[in-house]
Amino acid sequence: MSAFRLGLTGSIGMGKSTTAGFFAKAGIAVWDADAAVHRLYAPGGAAAAVLEPHFPASVRDGAVDRGALKAALAADPAALKVLEALVHPLVAKDRAAFLATATSDIVVLDIPLLFEKGTEAECDATLLVTAPPAVQRDRVLARPGMTEDQFRLILSRQMPDAEKRFRATHVVETLSLDSTQAYVQALIAHLRSAHA
User: Fold this and answer.
1) What is the CATH T-level fold of the domain 1-28+104-196, as seen in this structure?
2) What percentage of the chain carries pLDDT values higher than 90?
C-alpha cells in the first residue's frame, strides 16, 4: 500500500518549518519544497544549466546565485513566470524521487504554495499551519533583513489565510510549541487509525 500523502502548507511566519520538524521527529518522512530548490540551485544541481540561457547573470560556477536571480526578477516582473516554468518541473521530479523511496506509512509534503499551485490534488489530505495576523507579522519582521515592504510583497503572492483555512482538511494554530507538537502527534494517530 502506498504512503498516505499529507500536504503541509501555511503562509510566511505561520510556523510551517517548526511543524514539519515535529513530523520528522515522530519518524514521518518529510519532503521540503524549499530545501529541494536549494539543492537544485546548489553547485551540481540541475537548475543552473536550465536557467543559464534565460538568466545568464544569475548562474556562476555551476550554481544559481540567488541574489542575482532576485535582482533579475525585481527588474522584470514577467520573469517570475519564466522562472517558475523552468524550475517547477525540476521540483516535481525531486518530489517524485522522494515519494518513490520514502518508507514511512505517512509522508508529509511541505509546500509553501500548495494551494496556489494546485499541488493539493496530489495529496490525500492537507494541513494548514496558521496563527493570528499580529503573531505572523511579529515573527516575520523579527527575521534578519526582513522589512515591512518585503513582508507585504511576500503576502501579496500568497493566497489569503482565510481562503486556505476554507480549503484545508486540517488546521493547526501554532501559538505554542507544546500545543503544536501535541496536535501533530494526535493527527498522526488519527491518520493511522483512519487509514489502517
Assistant:
1) Rossmann fold (3.40.50)
2) 70
Distance of alpha carbon 76 from alpha carbon 64, whole angstroms: 18
Tell me: pLDDT of 176 over 60.
yes
Q: Which three cell numbers stand for residue 29?
A: 518522512
Q: Where in the chain is the domain with CATH 3.40.50.300?
A: 1-28+104-196
Nearest to 183 by CA among 195, 169, 173, 193: 173
- Residue 153: Cβ within 10 Å count: 11
- Residue 32's alpha-carbon distances to 17, 23, 54, 73, in angstroms, are 9, 12, 26, 23
pLDDT digits (tens, 9 = 90+) for 58-94: 998 889 998 888 888 888 878 888 999 999 999 999 9
**What's the pTM?**
0.89
Residue 130, judged by CB atoms within 10 A of its CB (0-12, 13-18, 19+), counts as: buried
CA dihedral 110, 116, 122, 127 (to 10 degrees): 50
Exposed (0-12), middle (13-18) or buried (19+): which is 92, by Cβ within 10 Å? middle
- 145 φ/ψ angles, rounded to the nearest 5 degrees: 80, 0
Q: How many helices (H) and strands (E) does the chain have?
A: 9, 7
Q: State mean pLDDT over 136-156.
A: 89
